[in-house]
Amino acid sequence: MFPSNFLPLTLEAFVDIINNDNHYQFLFISLIMIILFSLKGMFLRMFKGKKKVHVLKTTMIFLLIFALLGCTAQKPEKTSKEESSNKKETLTLSWPRDIGDMNPHVYNPSQLIAQSMIYEPLISYKEGGELKPALAESWNISKDGKEYTFNLRKNVKFTDGSVFNANVVKKNFDAIMKNAQMHSWLGLITVLDKTEAVDEFTFKITLKEPYYPTLQELAVVRPVRFLGEAGFPDDGDTSKGVKKPIGTGPWMLDDYKKDEYAVFTRNSNYWGESPKFKKIVIKIIPDAETRVLAFEKGELDLIYGEGAISLDAFKQLKDSKKYKTSTSEPVATRQLVMNTTKDQLSDLKVRLALQHGFNKKAMVDGVTSGVEEKADNILPENFLYSDIDSTPIRYDVKKAKAYLEEAGWKLPSGKIVREKDGKVLELELMYVKTDPIQKAMAETLQAEWAAIGVKLNITGVELTVQIKRFKENDFDLNFFSNYGAPYDPHTFVNVVSKEGFGFSEAIANLPMKQELNQQIYDVLRSTDEKKRKELYNSILTTLQEQGAILPISYIKQTAVYQKDVKGFTFPANRDEHPFSHISIDK
Question: Is the pTM here over 0.90, yes or no?
């Protein structure tokens, strides 16, 4: 009636169900107990005598124990150990945006954190601004500062096994220079004259004129990092995309689903120290609150970066004592740029009045939950050449009102806004409407400046609109921040002097603007360290004293991670990934 193997298969399926379902385990044990106790009376009649009854009872107990063991000592314990072991070899974190197509030579939507995992620079930027060998073992600079010769590492391979050498370095530089205008914000690109593969492992660049930040700019995450030969499109123009992300870095992209996740695995060909993890999983979670919930559920090991979660949420997680938290050294300064080409802001006294007219420390502590600290200088003092001698502008309402009076802005009787020559002292502050910190600070300034007779209108806009209006000089006041290490201070002062980015236009009415531009030109081409320091001190002090840039707070990166995560440190390079030394306790 049934096939010969029916019973074994049925028993096997039954055992499998029992082994993997707690509900069926309970039913099975109950059934065994009912059968045994139902047969107890029959067996007692069959077995006479104390000795036999004792043997019977012992047998029944043994059968019951055997049934219990059969349902408990099974696969789940082994699976749990395997899952635990796998977890220790995988780091899971979140990111607010999709990682992009991982093209080393373009910008958004490719994310810096992921690009830095795959692609490496010639030079590495370390703590205190120290420049260390990366893909270049060493380098030489000519006396005139125009020629840089790099001795490349000889044991480096790309993830596809191909050799890293001077020819592929040149191919990458050629691709970048095909679209030089795209990268003109980087000073090196504008002064690069030619490149040369001297031999297999020697590469040389020649500049049109000396440019001291060359090595620093070779350490940035994009665009000067290196794609393997097989990743290039047929025409060599990477601005249109790459065939696949082939780099020399410690990680390679293994699995990816747009807007959902990216899985990176170790590069078996990596020339440096092998990462402690086999995998890094980046889950794309756009909403900050959702990221926090996922972390609290244990679905994430790490939340890292600027604005990854709100500073309130960071403080709450820190105060809970359930997790580890870290804050970095200042990575940039949150600033307010005042447009000197606008009538009301063309007067230094008005600009100084606005700076004296609000309680900076109280605002920063309140809005950032004490994570950030008030900024007295335009650039953080932990940056190269940024520790300048200048007197911070203190909170002083009386002085603010006095400056406005001296500038001719009077407060008519019965009115709350100052006037001059029939015009009211009314300004607009533009902020990114999705940025809660900018919004809260704008509202605070609006209230505090009202107390000194200044009407501030605050306008929330999209980031793209903010950038467009800034470049077009269509604003009164605007939030801004510098670029961080390894870009500053040279990139910041370059933008201050170079037209087309908005900053130079905004401070065009400074009386010493032409002299300032000349100093910036000179400092970027200086080969004398002492002269360079003197020039930077003069440039940054002048910008500070002219009050067109109002330093608000020092921006810091935050990280919150589970207690079994160890070895987390913030990289010196603001945009570099932080995974080099992280591991999970076993």
Answer: no
